[in-house]
Each structure stands twice: as C-alpha cells, then as structure tokens.
Amino acid sequence: MRPVVVKVGGSTLGSHDTAMEDVAHLQRSGVPVIVVHGGGNAATEWLKLHGVTSEFVNGLRVTGPEAIDVVTAVFAGLVNKQLVAQLLALGARAAGVSGVDGATIATRRIDDRLGFVGQVERVDMTLVEALLGAGFLPVIAPLGFLADAPAQVMNVNADTIAGEVAVAAGAAQLVFLTDVPGVKDEKGEWVARLSPESAAGLLAAGVAAGGMAPKLEACLRAASAGVRACIIDGREPHALRAAIEEAPAVRGTTIAT
C-alpha cells in the first residue's frame, strides 16, 4: 500500500487534539503513514531563552552557529519526542528520526545570509522504508545535513521536506495540516480544488505568499509525481481522517490533475 505523508505544522502543534488520534487510527487500520513536523514557534521560544534573536529572510529563519544548536535540540529532541510519546500513548508504533539520521535528507546551503539553512538536494528513503517495513510510523524532524560536509546539521523547511519525502516514497497522498481553511484565489476566496497550473499561477502572481508558498510549492512537487496533495484546516476535529476519506465536509484545498 502506498503511504500517506502528513505534515503537522508549528502553527497547529498543540492547538488541536485529533490530528495524532487520526494518524494513530490510520496506522492501526493498516495504512502506512509518515509524519513530518515543524515546530517553529517552539524554536523561537527556546532561542529567546538562550538569548538568540530570531531573524527571517524571505520567510526562512536565519540559523547561525548559536541558533543551529538550539534548533537541532528543539526539533529533533523536544518536539519530535513529544509527538512520538503522544502517538505511542494512542496505540501507534512510532519512531522519531530527523533528516540527518540514515543520511535521509542531503542539502546544499541556500544563502550565506541564512547560515545553516539547507535546500533539499536528495532524499534517501532507506531508513524510512526500513521503519515502515518493520511496522513503525516514522516521525521526521525538519533537519538535514550538508551534502559536502556530513558533520554539519542543517535547518530545512519542513514543508519542503514533506513534499520531497512524498515524492521519494511514492505516496498516495500528501496532507498539510494548517491553521487556515486552505488556499485563497485572486479574489481572496477559499478554493476547494486547484489544478497544478492554477496553483503555479497563484505562486507566480504572489497571491500565495508567506507560509503558504512553500506548502503550495511542495504540493506542486508532489502532484507532478502523481501524489494527491491537499492543504486542510488542522483545527477541525478529525480533519485528517476526513481528508484521507475524501469527505466533502473537510475545509481545505486539493491540488491534483
């Protein structure tokens, strides 16, 4: 069975109580699931506690030598293990990893101004597939390693990782859980379905901007590989199950051919 990739965003982590229930339900039902998580809000809080100011360039967090240590600890440690513990308590067999583990996410440096922020260069699914094959639910923290210097951990946009993992896994579906009811069109109205061409047009026109841009770009990447992608309101009770079952009541936007 082709897996389902679920991206849980930092904006919705902790603001709802059904997403992980739905993930655990899917796994118990025999659906292979891969979770990719963010955690930007938690990283900001911990950076502040360590006296590190959070700066952003084009929506990406500037991650210098001091910040990368805190970001690594928060993403691969605190947030990742909290999610794994929650899934275990719900009866799922979950295992937390990051993109560094198993050389899963190799990156290149995006811009010297951003410090240790990486763009995905290649994905190696060996570890993730081994976990799935053993009956585990991989929970992936948004970190990678610098391809030409594996000793360096890199901060990577979690939306981008979700899209690349969905493609590499040959996923049936990619679901983004967010804190908005989908994507808006040029008129500012929520759209239930977008063709890849229409989605690309919203990006080119700057209509889809800010945090929505990398989500839509990831959806386009997935759709090009035949993956059904959707961006849904993760605050709605059991929104994930509704999206997987293609229930008409779910609030969100589907990007597919």
Summarize this, please?
This protein is α/β, with parallel strands linked by helices and 257 residues long.
Task: Describe the protein's topology.
Elements: E1 4-8, H1 19-28, E2 33-37, H2 40-49, E3 56-57, E4 60-61, H3 65-89, E5 94-98, E6 105-109, E7 117-123, H4 126-133, E8 137-141, E9 143-146, E10 149-156, H5 158-169, E11 173-178, E12 183-184, E13 190-191, E14 193-194, H6 196-204, H7 212-223, E15 228-233, H8 239-244, E16 252-255
Parallel strand pairs: 1-2, 1-11, 2-8, 5-8, 6-9, 7-10, 11-15, 14-16
Antiparallel strand pairs: 3-4, 6-7, 9-10, 12-13, 15-16
Helix pairs in contact: 1-3, 2-3, 5-7, 6-7
The tally of structural domains comes to 1
Low-confidence stretches: none
Rg: 17 Å
- The strand line-up of the biggest sheet is 5-8-2-1-11-15-16-14
Question: What pattern of helices and strands is seen along the backbone?
Answer: EHEHEEHEEEHEEEHEEEEHHEHE
User: What share of the residues does DSSP label as strand, in percent?
Assistant: 25-35%
The CATH topology name reads Carbamate kinase
CATH architecture assignment: 3-Layer(aba) Sandwich
Query: What is the name of the CATH class?
Result: Alpha Beta
**Helix-strand makeup class:** alpha/beta
Molecular structure report:
The protein is of the alpha/beta class. It has a single domain (4-255), classed as Carbamate kinase (3-Layer(aba) Sandwich). The protein is 36% helix and 27% strand. The protein contains 8 helices and 16 strands. It has helices spanning 19-28, 40-49, 65-89, 126-133, 158-169, 196-204, 212-223, 239-244; strands at residues 4-8, 33-37, 56-57, 60-61, 94-98, 105-109, 117-123, 137-141, 143-146, 149-156, 173-178, 183-184, 190-191, 193-194, 228-233, 252-255. The strands form 4 sheets. Strands 5-8-2-1-11-15-16-14 form an 8-stranded mixed beta sheet, with helices on both faces. Strands 6-7-10-9 form a 4-stranded mixed barrel. Strands 3-4 form a two-stranded antiparallel sheet. A hairpin with a 7-residue loop joins strand 6 and strand 7 (117-123). Helix 1 packs across helix 3 (65-89). The protein starts with a strand and ends with a strand.
